[in-house]
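Researcher: Going back to the complex we discussed earlier. I've cleaned up the inputs and rechecked each line, so this should be the final set. Can you rerun the prediction on the complete assembly and write out the structure?
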Amino acid sequence: MKKILVVGAGFSGAVIARELANTGEYKILVVDARGHVAGNCYTERDKETGIMEHVYGPHIFNTNNEKVWNYIQKFGEFRSYLNHVKAVTEKGLFSLPINLLTINQFFGKQFNPREAADFIEQQGDASISNPQNFEQQALKLIGRALYENFFKGYTIKQWGCDPKELPASILSRLPIRFNYDDNYYNSKFQGIPVNGYTELVQNMINHSNIEVKLNTKYTREQNPKFDHTFYSGPLDAYFDFELGRLSYRTIFFEKNIFDGEDYQGNPVINYCSKDIPYTRVHEHKHFTPWEKHDKSIYLKEFSKETTAGDIPYYPKRLAADKVLLDAYRNLANNETKVTFIGRLGTYRYMDMHHVIDEALTISEDFTKSDNATPFY
Ligand code: UDP
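Model: Rerun complete. Updated structure for the full complex:
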């Protein structure tokens, strides 16, 4: 049997390990530097309250991809869950994503959907035909008042740079609606695994052809012992940062126990002003509304630039990063028998469903040809 090394036990690594194991033609070793599987999706029950905690921040599974949705359910039971988010701005608390209620309350109007769409079009800056960055995209789509109250301060805190430096695509993650639907996502399939993400990933890698080693550091010198390596760690770390560091944001949390049933009455509340140091507060019991707990936990989320030792979460992809990324990709393209996968391995802002979809494609191609390219 061929020997495969998978670096990182997040969704990319787990899906590839499982798909290759299923063929019966490979022995797979999965290594992870941390003491647990599931990467940043890791969940565990809080010791004091029993609430399922999303230890590295909230993960709400949502996708339009039926193949991914069906696949993921083979490894754990999901329950339907729609995410709801409120935003605290300098003008008060509003509904997110921006919808008819937000627009009417923010501007003191009672628009119907068509009136609201016309009004927001007038607010938008029509002179921007081809938005080049986050700020231009926002000014074009929603105008200055909504941009400054809902997006500017939050984005500066979250990304640590001027929104003019960020890609327009980040704003496009959020819908804008002219009805009263306040479901945070547009996706057709949305849910939360009843027993958490950790169990789901554990079920994926629980296979007689897969061995898992946690607390295990990887260096690329180990590659020659294997027929192929799938690497989901940071691309720059693979090369020991020899060309410099790609910029990532990391997030960190201040965790609190609330001695009552409901601390904030909603799963997530965003704080959009740049004068409030945290970006959002999440109260995790609301992610499993079918469970009953007497107490609650809530986490204030802060964002900062990564320095050595921090967990990278968000690839910034600023102009300088893209130049460096190209240089690292050139280096990576010289590697034979290594494939770079996932959010960190490819330095892209991917959601769980993107990662799973791509990992399924990579596994399918690899099992057919036994020869994978460094990137997909
Ligand atoms: N955003 C914002 N204000 C908000 C919510 C989001 O400015 O109240 C911006 C911010 O730049 C953020 C981006 O929209 O990074 C995408 O938001 P999303 O909720 O998708 O971020 P994630 O959950 O991936 O952190």
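Model: Worth noting: The chain has two domains: 2-82+190-247+310-369, 85-173.
Researcher: Good, that matches what I expected from the previous run.
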